[in-house]
Write a structure and sequence with these properties.
globular, 6% strand, 804 residues, Integrase-like_cat_sf, binds iron/sulfur cluster, DNA_brk_join_enz
Length: 804
């Protein structure tokens, strides 16, 4: 057994810091038993069955029937283990088939009632710390009620507090059971008390469980313990410095600059020092991902490549011959593919040489020694400029391909969401075994044993149905997936946000501004990043609709938007808990969707459409394509930030007061601090005071947007670019009160088409058909919004009319 443990520990350690992979999790999975041997009910390792029975009777006196079967199990186990050598129960266990991790006690007992007696005996030995099993030996015995043995046996205030916290946690019963089981199992296999369940040891348990899970079934390759981790963190058992979720603990944190360089194993210590010093010097101006990219290009691709060609190279003075040889080698990537973007390699290298030259003027002692001619010739950069133009042309071609396909994608996600929402609605109302029909297809609702148990306890059952082909469908999951597909596509296309900006939206990014005339304008705040400025987007009716739908979904049943942390994959840091909008329940935990996950979802959507629409073959929308499409429609997508900032600074006080009733003050403070931190990274000139003229112009913009059928969604300070043909214009937001006017226009158009038909005006017919198509599309959009009409669920600030 100990060999197996050691082998596994070694395997785990290989993935830890110190290995050259540098992809280690934020918490190092390890357990270090400094606790004296833990025997909550005395050291029974050499006790006979009678002594164990006596202790067991004190710990678990009831029910009598279970007590008797447990005793029978203990006798049978003792007899079985007696056939194997050893002075202690542990030694005999390790020598027996039970310690081999290959067979469960119940199987050795022949299954049935006798098998259950064996299982009870095994639980007794584990819980009283007579035998310390390996994780695989514990799991193979399927000890579903194991916490009922461990918690009384430990009689530990900490563990009792954890059990109470799990019971009060907002988790399903299923995950509550798992949370308790995971902690009891971790304590058992590590042989420790609850006090020694640390982030490191618990992560070790999660790693080892993943390793020992059979390679089949639902939980292949998954980590356990997410719920337990959240409760342990929330109750303060884990230190505040620990990540709040197990998933965050698994993510690699930022590398230090030394680690960024060292992972490329630079042999010459002087060169290593130079690279480290160079990156430290650039650190204040470049974000983390920029530094990583610079280290990759300069250290790995350039320097290590040069050394491979000329091992004697001792400084930066690279001959043209060596450089040309290196250049030929670097145009092909490690995977054998052609490198398309050579500027990503050559630009950092050129910048490196030129930075050293300019810094040497001010600090000759530090940098002067390294100054030399840059080996990358100017002519190469000109070629790169031409290559970049080719890339831009390819991007434009992609946008032209995607533009006509966007309505198809939107129709697909809308129809899919509505179909699943209808199915969920109908199936929720159906009883177990009840058949119902939607659109000619028949479904049958089905309840699992767990569902029946939930219903008996007054809880809602999961919604599952069988379709006509006999497939069992998890309707909750499918509807949820369809909703988020719709929400992602709609938000991206109506806002033009970058993917990371989308995942960063929180309920606190949504603001309302009430104009002096009472009109309420919904605004979306896009936090500034180091490389891009803050934006405030006046929301169109469509964007408002999708954001409100998300908030309503997250606050169903009167909840507030759940607080979750967000992992920034570029900077590799976690945010403070915030009411982020693009969050999902994934198994045991809730988290903000990842940018990779969203891109993957879009890819799957396009593949699904391609099954019926050949235009989608080999085509897929990337998140940034929506931004490009948005930009081709709108030249500018927000208010000038100094007006937006004045507006928000002004509204913050009002809005904050309202939000305090919804979230605790810490949350508001975290969000404000986050904005302030980000604003500091931007030049101060972006936030000048707003002049009276600018403010009046801002107010007038909204008056100018009023049109007969509703309001125009064109960006701030832009004229109408569609010649006021509003019915045909994608920027028109139709006021639902003006639907009757759409009907009148439609009737008029139909009459005109009839006349054109009679007169043979073919050109006129084509134009009228086009207008009719737009008109009907707009009416469909408005009706869809009315069907799913929501408010934003945010406090309304008091009316104010000037930033003052
Ligand atoms: S045509 Fe479009 S941009 Fe012009 S006013 Fe009408 S809705 Fe606005």
């Amino acid at each position: 057994m100990n060999e197996r443990r050691a082998e596994r520990a070694l395997r785990l350690r290989r993935d830890q810091p110190g290995s050259v992979r540098y992809t280690r999790p934020a918490v190092v999975p390890t357990f270090d038993i400094r606790e004296p041997a833990h025997f909550p009910r005395g050291d029974l390792r050499r006790a006979d069955v009678e002594q164990i029975r006596t202790v067991a009777k004190q710990v678990w006196p009831d029910p009598a029937s279970r007590r008797r079967s447990r005793d029978r199990g203990l006798y049978k186990l003792a007899a079985l283990l007696a056939e194997h050598p050893g002075d202690t129960w542990q030694q005999r266990w390790d020598a027996s088939p039970l310690g081999s991790e290959q067979v469960a006690a119940r199987v050795l007992g022949g299954g049935g009632a006798v098998g259950t007696e064996y299982t009870q005996g095994v639980q007794t030995l584990f819980a009283l710390r007579i035998v310390r099993p390996t994780l695989a030996a514990l799991r193979i015995n399927q000890l579903t009620i194991y916490p009922q043995y461990v918690v009384p046996a430990e009689n530990d205030d900490g563990l009792n507090g954890f059990a109470a916290a799990v019971s009060a946690a907002a988790l399903s019963d299923h995950f509550k059971r798992w949370a308790l089981f995971d902690v009891c199992a971790a304590m058992t296999i590590h042989g420790v008390s609850f006090a020694y369940v640390t982030p490191e040891s618990f992560l070790h348990y999660a790693f080892e469980t993943r390793e020992t899970t059979p390679r089949t079934g639902l939980h292949v390759g998954k980590y356990v313990g997410h719920s337990a981790w959240q409760v342990l963190f929330a109750m303060g058992h884990f230190p505040p410095s620990a990540p709040p979720t197990l998933r965050n603990a698994l993510r690699a944190p930022q590398l230090t600059i030394e680690e960024m360089v060292d992972r490329y194993e630079v042999a010459d210590p002087r060169m290593r020092e130079l690279f480290v010093a160079y990156l430290h010097r650039r650190y204040p101006d470049v974000d983390y991902s920029g530094l990583l990219a610079a280290a990759y290009a300069i250290v790995k691709l350039f320097w290590n490549g040069i050394i491979e060609i000329n091992p004697a190279q001792g400084d930066l003075n690279v001959s043209q011959e060596v450089y040309q040889q290196w250049h030929r080698s670097v145009v092909v990537r490690e995977d054998g593919e052609q490198r398309l973007d050579m500027s990503a390699v050559l630009s950092p290298v050129r910048a490196f040489y030129f930075d050293l030259q300019s810094w040497a003027v001010d600090e000759p002692a530090m940098w002067g020694h390294w100054v030399t001619t840059c080996p990358v010739p100017r002519s190469t950069m000109n070629q790169i400029g031409r290559a970049k133009r080719r890339v831009r042309e390819r991007v434009h071609a992609t946008v032209r391909t995607l533009q006509p396909l966007l309505p198809v994608l939107v129709d697909h996600v809308t129809a899919d969401y509505e179909r699943w929402a209808t199915l969920l609605h109908r199936a929720t109302a159906a009883a177990d075994g009840e058949a119902f029909t939607i659109g000619g297809a028949t479904f049958v609702r089905t309840f699992s044993r767990e569902d029946n148990r939930r219903v008996r306890h007054g809880l809602p059952a999961k919604v599952r149905v069988f379709d006509e082909a006999g497939r069992r469908i998890d309707v909750n999951r499918s509807e949820d997936s369809a909703f988020w597909a719709w929400a992602i596509v709609e938000t991206l296309r109506h806002s033009g946000l970058r993917i990371e900006e989308l995942t960063e939206l929180s309920q606190l990014s949504v603001r309302q501004y009430r104009r002096p005339n009472g009109e309420v304008i919904a605004l979306l705040v896009v936090a500034p990043s180091k490389t891009d400025r803050e934006r405030v987007i006046p929301m169109s009716a469509e964007l408002f609709h999708v954001i409100a739908s998300i908030i309503r979904r997250l606050t169903v049943g009167g909840k507030t938007v759940p607080m979750v942390t967000r992992f920034d994959t570029y900077d590799r840091v976690w945010s403070d808990p915030q009411p982020f909008l693009f969050q999902r329940h994934i198994g045991q935990h809730v988290e903000v969707m990842t940018t990779g996950g969203i891109a993957e979802k879009l890819r799957h959507l396009c593949q699904a459409i391609a099954e019926n629409d050949p235009r989608f073959e080999g085509v897929h929308f990337r998140p940034h394509d929506f931004r490009r499409l948005f930009a081709t429609e709108l030249v500018n997508n927000g208010l000038p930030i100094h007006i937006g900032a004045a507006l928000l600074g002004h509204l913050n006080l009002e809005t904050t007061r309202g939000y305090v009733a919804v979230f605790n003050e810490d949350v508001i403070r975290h969000y404000q601090a986050h904005l302030q931190r980000r604003r500091k990274a931007r030049p101060a000139e972006e936030y000048p005071n707003v002049t009276v003229d600018e403010w009046e112009e801002f107010q007038a913009h909204f008056d100018k947007r009023k049109v007969e059928l509703g309001s125009c969604g064109r960006p701030y300070a832009t004229p109408c670019i569609h010649e006021h043909a509003c019915v045909r214009c994608p920027l028109l937001n139709v006021d639902p009160n003006m639907l009757h006017r759409l009907d009148e226009i439609e009737a008029d158009l139909i009459a005109r088409r009839q006349r054109a038909d009679n007169e043979g005006w073919q050109g006129e017919i084509e134009g009228i058909e086009l207008t009719l198509g737009f008109l009907r599309g707009k009416r469909g959009d408005v009706n869809g919004r009315i069907r799913r009409s929501h408010d934003l669920g945010i406090p309304t600030p008091a009316p104010r009319d000037h930033p003052g």
